[in-house]
Amino acid sequence: MGNVLIVNPEVVIVGGGPGGAAAAYWLARSGHSVVLAEKKRFPRDKTCGDGLTPRAIHQLTEMGFDFAVPELHKIVGLRAYAGGVKLEMPWPDHSIYPNWGAVIRRTDLDMQVAALAEKQGALILQGTTAEPVVEGGRLTGVRLKDGDGDERLVHPKVTVIADGSLSRFGRKLGTERNKAYPYGLAVRGYYNSPRSDDQYLESHLDIRDSNGSPLPGYGWIFPLGDGQLNIGAGAVSTFKGWKEFNSNKLMDALIEALPEYWGVTPESVVVAPKGGKLPMTFSVSPKAGPNWVLVGDAAGAVNAFNGEGIDYGYETGRLAAHYISQAIGSDDLGLLQNYPAALEDQYGLYNKVARLFLTAIGRPQVMGALVRTGMRSRPLMEWVLKVMANLMEPEDRGFGEQVYGAIERIVRVTPDVR
Ligand SMILES: Cc1cc2nc3c(=O)[nH]c(=O)nc-3n(C[C@H](O)[C@H](O)[C@H](O)COP(=O)(O)OP(=O)(O)OC[C@H]3O[C@@H](n4cnc5c(N)ncnc54)[C@H](O)[C@@H]3O)c2cc1C
Question: Would you call 153 helix, strand, or coil by DSSP?
Fold first, then answer.
């Protein structure tokens, strides 16, 4: 922290990933004094697929992100492999979201978004760990510690907890993950490839071991456009065999089975696979306390359909900023409780469907039936892509019933799972 003078800011933000940086951007833009503490120094890595869907592009556009940076590789759609079938689908047209996505390393992305927040006036303290001061069960201050042993105690009006999937800060305030909700584990590595300028994200839903037996989980290949690919594999806690799930085994099987055009062998590895956690469907509660809120992974905001969490970090950071600004402006912190209600309103139904879907596909027969039915029908798969990437139009609001109906029908015609 050195000589930086920190008067008590209105808001302290814990963590400089997508959730924290977006909250800092929108709060500073509304004229609030904001300190964001990030325990690492940029450029910092974050284990991730580095994939941005149109929802993330939309939020980045709203924050004035420069898409011309050479590190960003544009993506036009999704190529899905399952049941021996390949299907290439462009991102759908939408009235709000663009019909393109991107892949960009988190080392580049997060540093650039934090810089946008700084430009709006947020004070970004890198290499600074934030710790809660709790007295009488209430958050009364935040202790900011830098690597030189410098320590400051600040007393913000509101604290935004954006410290990621483990959310140690949040746990000290009593937040808890609902263990009945789905939860993901994934690994990713970087690999050299002659085809890194491919403009499709690729997903594999049908990974098998050397004996041809199906392994629980899915895999992805996200091209970076710079000679390398981000390749990863993961599974969700509802999958059969979850307790024995071995992400490295799944990753080895994926690399072994990759289509030849990627030109990837185990020797192509540049950065060895590393694992991370994906808390899903807003599994962490409470989302707000008397003077704090949770955003991004700290709230369990990852989309269970596809493992995306960058966009939900930006969206929840922005939404939280809106309610914090209202609460501070009206001098009524009770208004922070409107934030969890807004999250429920915006994402509640979608997450309910996602949980049902994940429970259903956890049964291999249902997964097999869905893959066989879906991959034979392009219109159905294009609709599935829209649902999975949460790119439905407001008039598609009845989608919940449609998805329930579709899953139910498939369960009914699948032997052994009636
Ligand atoms: C293997 C894997 C692949 C994924 N692939 C994708 C993908 O392709 N696309 C996608 O959209 N999502 C993906 N995700 C999910 C995505 O990475 C997260 O949802 C996203 O990073 C959440 O952002 P966040 O700001 O909430 O948390 P984070 O990005 O985790 O940021 C939290 C920050 O807080 C800092 N911090 C923690 N504690 C403190 C403290 N006490 N004081 C100060 N700073 C602190 C950390 O250093 C970190 O920088 C993937 C996740 C995994 C594990």
Answer: strand
Q: Distance (Å, rounded) from C-alpha 167 to C-alpha 313?
A: 14
Residue spans of the domains in the chain: they are 11-71+104-178+281-349, 183-279, 351-413
Is the pLDDT reported for residue 417 higher than 50? no
Between CA 61 and CA 333 the distance in angstroms is 30
- Closest C-alpha to ligand 1, atom 33: 15
Q: How far is the CA of 340 from the centre of ligand 1 (A)?
A: 21
Return the minimum-mean-pLDDT range out of 71-80, 85-94, 114-123, 399-408. Answer: 399-408
Superfamily of segment(s) 183-279: D-Amino Acid Oxidase, subunit A, domain 2 (3.30.9.10)
Residue nearest atom 31 of ligand 1, based on CA coordinates: 17
| Nearest atom in ligand 1 to 312's CA | 19
The CA 163 to ligand 1 mean position distance, Å, reads 8
Nearest-CA residue for atom 6 of ligand 1: 49
Bridge partners, residue 78, by sequence: 89, 201
What are the pLDDT digits (tens) for 344-392?
999 998 898 888 888 877 777 777 777 777 777 888 788 788 888 888 8
* β-bridge mates for residue 146, sequence order: 128
Q: How far is CA 410 from the centre of its chain?
A: 29
| SS3 state at 270 | strand
Q: Please state, in angstroms and rounded to a whole number, the distance separating the CA atoms of residues 223 and 207.
A: 19
Task: Report how far ligand 1's centroid is from the alpha carbon of 47 (Å).
Answer: 8
Residues with CB under 6 Å of ligand 1 are 14-20, 37-40, 44, 46-51, 129-130, 162-164, 169, 186, 188, 232, 276-278, 296-298, 302, 307-311, 313
* Residue 80 DSSP symbol: E
Determine the distance separating the centroid of ligand 1 and the alpha carbon of 318, expressed in angstroms.
16
* 233 Cα–ligand 1 center, Å: 17
CATH class, range 11-71+104-178+281-349: alpha beta
Q: Is 313 left (phi over 0), alpha (psi -120 to 50) or beta?
A: alpha
Distance from the CA of 175 to the center of ligand 1, in angstroms? 18
Please check whether residue 228 is in contact with residue 193, taking contact to mean a CB–CB distance below 8 angstroms: yes
Closest CA to 11 of 309, 313, 310, 295: 295
Cα(208)–Cα(205) distance, integer angstroms? 10
CA distance 12 to 123: 10
The helix-helix angle for 310-329 and 54-62 (nearest 10°) equals: 40
